[in-house]
Amino acid sequence: MSSPVTDVTTPPRAGALLPQRWLILAFIGVAQLMVVLDSTIVNIALPTAQADLHFSDSDRQWVVTAYALAFGSLLLLGGRLADLFGRKNAFLVGLVGFALASALGGSAQSFEVLVIARVVQGVFSALLAPAALSLLIVTFTDPAERGKAIGIFGAVAGSGASVGLLLGGFLTGHFSWRWTLYINVLFAAVAFVGGLVLVRRTARSHAHLDIPGTLLASAGLFCLVYGFANADTHSWSSVNTWGYLVASAVLLAVFTLWQTKSQHPLLPMRILAHRDRGAAFVALLVLGSGLFGMLLFLTYFLQQVLQYSPVRTGFAFLPMNASIMLTAVTGASVLLPRFGPKLVGSAGMLLCMSGAAWLTTLDTQAAYTTDVLPGLVLTGLGLGSVFATGMSQATAGVAGQDAGVAGAMVNTMQQVGGSLGPALLSTVVASSTADYLSEHPGHRPSVLVEASVHGYTTAFVWAAAFFAVGLVVSGLLFRLKRDPSEASATPVAVH
Q1: 58, burial (CB in 10 Å: exposed 0-12, middle 13-18, buried 19+)
Q2: What is the pLDDT of residue 494?
Q3: Average pLDDT of 269-277?
Q4: 283 CB-side CA count, 13 A
Q5: What number of other Cβ atoms are within 10 A of residue 10's Cβ?
Q6: Which of 62, 354, 385, 430 is least surrounded by CB atoms within 10 angstroms?
Q7: How many C-beta neighbours within 10 Å does residue 367 have?
Q8: Residues 78 and 130: beta-carbon distance below 8 Å
Q9: 182 in a domain, yes or no?
Q10: What average pLDDT does the segment 299-314 reach?
Q11: Is 394 left (phi over 0), alpha (psi -120 to 50) or beta?
């Protein structure tokens, strides 16, 4: 028997729309941008930080992995805590914790302190990210407006990674690597003030926290992200890779079984049982895998083959960001209501696949405007469409007491996909590059460049394959049209 909750089940009247809801969205968007760009903003600063703090190449990966491990493994817990103790509370605590961790990392005088700061950043991100999305759900109670809001939120989420590359390059080049962390304090302060003043408190659930489920889910997701991270730096045959992935599969299987028996499940199965919602989670997982893998090796191509600076590389991704924003906003508010999730999601995946396929033609003589830009624009148009579809369907019809954990699932799928894609494609690139060198013996510098390009284009082939899988998933699992009753306001009380 489920515990009673304080959320009322009567949707608020249309006249009860919050007058400051669009301003609230702006502050939520700032928080979401901070979380997403932090997955890439530090990457460009790593060589400078390494020289400053004197840590090894093998240690360097931990600056990235530490954040991903904490973030990915604690997302479900963070989402449920937001439901239990209030989304506004979770949002504000997450912002403060993230800001303090960023300040600690920026002032770090040793590698160990920097890694600890990144872990703490990941912990508070896991609380902040689900709270931000769930606050959006309960703030926008009108279906049409919620579609626009989710589109804007999706545009921020989709473009955050490439914005991080641009901002990271600018801050490192003009100030210091430490400012790639300090800048978060400014983002968090702006979002905190807005959240404190404008966001209304939501009613808390009286359910208890599922401790066994929390331990199983956190351990399973930790092993999953850690296994993929090891595949990126070791090999798939290493016990540190497949051993953790097997452990993850076992732990998550036990977690799923436990959720069907627990009186207070961490992840209620009703959230996954809905057809469009389940399709959305799978689509976001596949999209994250293809997107982050493609972004990684396109960044390498721009910097190592076209000799772009970090800042110029960031600017090179701006057309993709603009494309994401265009289709994310119009997709959620215009296309989805008219054509339904099956058509919009499938069209988005097809565009992403076409963009990745275009990039497979790159060579050492490639020009940005004719060879790179079209692929970026096609991919961006597709990403916006899929983000709009995925986020709207993942949160459609979710009861107020489940909004936080639904938001956590959205972020979990993206985080797992963002770990899987680079890990798998790194292996593909290494193998195809080595094969090219064995088939073209010689020590000419041009051969090494050609081998690298061959590896990158092979990665784009695999990215296109990821998006093709997403196309099949969207075509088979999403319904042609969504039930209009599921677009109704999320029932939630405010006080």
Answers
A1: exposed
A2: 37
A3: 78
A4: 37
A5: 8
A6: 430
A7: 10
A8: yes
A9: yes
A10: 83
A11: alpha
Give per-residue pLDDT as tens, 355-382. Answer: 999 999 998 889 999 999 999 999 999 9
Mean pLDDT over residues 265-281, rounded?
Answer: 80
CATH number of the domain enclosing 141: 1.20.1250.20
Number of domains making up the chain: 1
Residue 191 buriedness (CB in 10 A; 0-12 / 13-18 / 19+): buried
- Look up residue 339 and give its two tokens: 């054509």
What does the DSSP 8-state code read for residue 494?
B
Mean pLDDT of all residues belonging to the chain: 82
In a domain, 408, yes or no: yes
Predicted pLDDT at 272: 78
Query: pLDDT band for position 480 (50/70/90)?
Result: confident
Nearest-angstrom CA–CA distance, 388 and 348 = 10
- Whether 428 maps to a domain, the answer reads yes
Residue 245 lies in a domain: no
174 burial class (0-12, 13-18, 19+ CB within 10 angstroms)? exposed
How many Å apart are CA 267 and CA 308, to the nearest integer? Answer: 45
Dump the DSSP string for 288-353.
Answer: HHHHHHHHHHHHHIIIIIS---HHHHHHHTHHHHHHHHHHHHHIIIIIHHHHHHHHHHHHHHHHHH
Name the burial class of residue 11, with classes exposed (0-12), middle (13-18) and buried (19+) by CB atoms within 10 angstroms of its CB: middle
| Nearest CA among 194, 217, 141 for reference residue 34 | 194
Amino acid present at 456: Y
- Residue among 8, 421, 480, 401 at smallest CA distance from 208: 401
Is pLDDT of 153 > 90? no
- Kindly list the distances between the CA atom of residue 365 and the CA atoms of 305, 307, 356, in Å, as whole numbers in the listed order: 9, 12, 18
Per residue, the 3-state secondary structure of 450-488, as one string, reads: HHHHHHHHHHHHHHHHHHHHHHHHHHHHCCCCCCHHHHC
Q: Residue 490 has what pLDDT?
A: 43
Q: What is the pLDDT of residues 72-121, one digit of tens each?
A: 888 888 888 887 888 888 899 999 999 999 999 999 999 899 999 999 99
Strand partners for 202: 494
